[in-house]
Known about the structure:
mainly beta, 13-stranded antiparallel sheet
Amino acid sequence: MRRFSSSAGIAALFLAVALWPASAATGQDYEVRFHRPAKVGDKEHLAASGHVVSRLSLKAGDKVIQAEAHDYTVECEGAATILEVDQKDEPAKFSLLVEKCTRTEAPAAAAGKPATEKAVASELVPKGAVVVLASKGEETTVEVNGRPAAPEVQEALSEVFRISANAPTDDELFGTKERRKVGDQWAGNAELMSADLAKRGFVLKNAKVSSTITLEKVVKVGETDCLQVRGQFEGSGVEPSGLPPNLKIEQSAIRARFGGKFPVDTKAMVPERWAEFEGTLVGAFTAPNAPEARLEIFKSVSNVMRESAAK
């Protein structure tokens, strides 16, 4: 709900020109708005998918002290109802009457399974269950049928449906107050991005944060004219807080690609948003009379959210 990048031969070129929206040829400009105010009681059909990859390696010389790897996909679909909104009219709590909710583990990441084994989806939450997701500080809580979700359900669904009440909206972070034409690019609010990262528990040491957003083209989703927007974000020198004092960071970075199809009618429901986030951290533990231990962490989370009128 919140948070949200493609496009040869002479024949193909002529076809592209022939099909190019008339608005692009005439230089029409548009109001670009990512945020759609929500109200308690709003209903819609949600179809969301997310892919999570994470790796952790801690070694001292050739000795592996700790190693973890996860690679799984979550697909969840159902009827959503807004239960609470925040001060910016963003969903702070919503329920989902589940039609489908599965998790598929990549065989190569599953213990004892050969990489050639076919991945099989397992049911994460049964059909007919009611899932309630809510913002609690910077975390997303998950309940299933009125009870706290099992740890694996909490982990998976909080990655796919990340909620953060009263956080800056996408318009505040990546939007533009100017009307824009197809092909226009603009920068996001780097100062606000840095402040938001700090609030979320990241230490900004000589950090460099930047983003570029592009209005790519006008597309139709059904009968609705939409602005297809794509963006990218990069931050170097960004570290999670709470790291051990004897860990010397050598490299850290976060990157994101995001976008969606936003109706020209700024009050209409957004049919599709997507985002890909990636973070890396490399460092070394040092201690007296002990060999150096090297730490490498990688995490990638991508998701797609499709919204449509309630069935």
